Amino acid sequence: MTTGCNPSVTPVDGGDAGPDASGCPAITGAGVEHTGNITGVQTWRAADNPHRVTQLGMTIQGTVTMEPCVVVEMAAGSRVTIQAAPGSMDRARWVARGEPGRVVTVRRAGSMRWSQINVTDTGSMDFEHAVVEGGGGSGRDQARGGMIYSLAGAATAARSTPVLRLRSVRIADSAGYGISLEGTAGFTDDSQDLTITGAGAAPMPQGREDGRAPLYVQTPAVQTVPAGTYTGNARDEIDVFSAQNVVEAERFRSRGVPYRLLSTISVRPAEPTQRATLEIEPGVTIRVINSRGAGMPGDLAIRLGDRGRTPEQPLLATLVANGTMDRPIRLESAEATPAAGDWAGIQHGPSPTMGNVVRHVTIAHAGGESSTTGLGCGPSDNDAAYMIFGWVPTEAFIQNSVIRDSRATGIVLGFTTDAAPPTMKASNQFINIGNMCEVARWRDARTNGCPGSTAGSPVCL
């Protein structure tokens, strides 16, 4: 039997008290045990508290709805899987309908952690006014420590799969990530007021940095991350990985903490008739890891566009990074001791000639290995913080920005034209450029030459 006063939420250092259960009655009964497969429709009531999930765990194949003040106590190592029955056309659902002052609570039954809530692509988790705490205790390598974990969506899907609807929910005290989303798993459009705090409470194997942040998410679901509070964790960053091309759109929203980029992001549509867009909101910081230390091939980059199957059918992508003077955008190294060349930079291939915006953006510690040579009239090695190739801009879309601590060139204008394109130099600052070439000039189209070059010397603006 479980007895005592109202179920409580223990604040975690760095976080607020979150949703509260002050209006809930005391638990006085022995509770109800849940295990195995749950089919059909069930309603869990506060009068039956606590609802105990055994070490064997349970699978929700129908719909389970929890009333306000329900308390779920998870046994050590237990998990809840939300997955429709084989052949079912209906999505499995775990629903929490708490209220202000009368939250639903999912917590550990004793001193040992429970494992996770696993939301499959045939299930959904729909929580309002709820607290989930004390999990992530096993399977941390497979699920990156996500106390709430989902792998959903087709590998080549253009859009996110909304498996989580979280409104006024607090995720606390996870051994690793508070939430880990793989594939195209993401949040619903109306998710809001999410708090993740106390993530990374247990050391990761071999001192790894993954699992120490509140949230892990893959493209194209980054844009679904809801407004909320993501502080008070071992590392206050949102980890982002791109396992596939962004073929329609992705958006890095301002969510109060930096994003940590764990892979190259490639933005390119599937067909020449389509367009892809990457948008970065004002105030966003994206920190890029040095992949050489992570055993990954090549330096990481943000890549836009592709030459496509033929020169007449390029795959066009647009970048909109519209910072402001008060809320600039920062793209920089994630290393504890940042250095020039920690990441490759922005590689801006075929794009619409108008519509790109890079304004009030600082690009730092880039200029790593690009594996590109011979473009433009600058140094033959085209490593740069920002490289433009495969198209000719008609407007100076890089404005009021700072390029600093580049290992090589600042900007490479790696195209050919006989017109006088914008140089991308006016209004921008270049600080500590490794090869002293702030902007590498384009080549003339008619001659493929570099006016001003002597015996192949670089021409920099």
Q: Topology, pairings included?
A:
Elements: E1 32-38, E2 41-44, E3 51-60, E4 63-66, E5 71-74, E6 80-82, E7 92-97, E8 104-108, E9 117-120, E10 123-133, E11 148-152, E12 161-172, E13 179-183, E14 185-187, E15 192-197, E16 215-218, E17 228-229, E18 238-241, E19 249-252, E20 259-261, E21 265-267, E22 275-280, E23 285-288, E24 301-304, E25 316-322, E26 329-333, E27 345-348, E28 357-359, E29 361-364, E30 384-389, E31 398-399, E32 402-406, E33 409-414, E34 429-433, E35 439-440
Parallel strand pairs: 1-3, 2-4, 3-5, 3-6, 4-7, 5-8, 6-9, 7-10, 8-10, 9-11, 10-12, 11-13, 12-14, 12-15, 13-16, 15-17, 16-18, 18-20, 19-22, 20-23, 21-24, 22-25, 23-26, 24-27, 25-28, 26-29, 27-30, 28-31, 29-32, 30-33, 32-34, 33-35
Structure, briefly:
By secondary structure, this protein is mostly beta strands. The protein folds into 2 domains: 34-236; 245-461, no CATH class.
Describe the structure.
The structure is a single chain. This protein is an all-beta fold and about 450 residues long. The protein folds into two domains: about 35-235; about 245-460, no CATH class. About 0% of the residues lie in helices and about 35% in strands. It contains no helices and 35 strands. It has strands spanning about 30-40, 40-45, 50-60, 65, 70-75, 80, 90-95, 105-110, 115-120, 125-135, 150, 160-170, 180-185, 185, 190-195, 215-220, 230, 240, 250, 260, 265, 275-280, 285-290, 300-305, 315-320, 330-335, 345-350, 355-360, 360-365, 385-390, 400, 400-405, 410-415, 430-435, 440. The strands form three sheets. The protein has a 24-stranded parallel sheet that branches. The protein has a six-stranded parallel sheet with strand order 21-24-27-30-33-35, with no helix packed on it. A five-stranded parallel sheet has the order 19-22-25-28-31, with no helix packed on it. It is elongated.
